[in-house]
Amino acid sequence: MNTNQSKVILLIADISGYTKFMLANRNTISKSHKIIIELINTIIKHIELPLEVAKIEGDAVFLFALKGDGDTEWEMLRKNIGSRLITFFDVFTQKINELRNSVFCDGDICIAIETLKLKVIVHSGFAELVKIGSFTELSGIDVIIVHRLLKNSVKENEYILMTESACTEIMFPKIICIETGIEKYDDIGEVLTFIYYHKDS
Questions:
Q1: 201 pLDDT exceeds 50?
Q2: What is the pTM (predicted TM-score) of this model?
Q3: What's the CATH class of domain 2-197?
Q4: Other CB atoms closer than 10 Å to residue 172's CB: what's the count?
Q5: What ranges do the domains of the chain cover?
């Protein structure tokens, strides 16, 4: 088992509305679960290097990217992740529409499927990368922070929430409207956040 602390960008792509959807379809729980799996697979298929899957966490996907040392490599990384983040929403919505018209949604199975949305949490910092067999486990304070931010005060259910470090580093392909906020936690204190609300065009 080898450990190594590295500069990383940490992301969690989380399906909001999961509990409401599963409860609304409790009589067809097996098919409901298959719909969630389809959505998670859609997120994973959309991921390209330098983003890597660290772990599947129920209805969420925990991702990371090593920041690297070279200026050229870092510039490409910033643009790549910014572009990925915006298009995550498009592929997720497209998959929802496909599932609504598929065999998965026969009868009453798709009650509340329109409530399934995507929220993405992004933080930049350091993580200890631990290789256990073919798996890479991430640990450290910054890993804790990105997971704490899943529980936040944002009222919308489709957004990107970034910490200050992530917002200053990620380069988006177009100008987007970002709102600032502050999240407070007993153990880690205050976290300044920057929120992008995705609106369907």
A1: no
A2: 0.89
A3: alpha beta
A4: 17
A5: 2-197
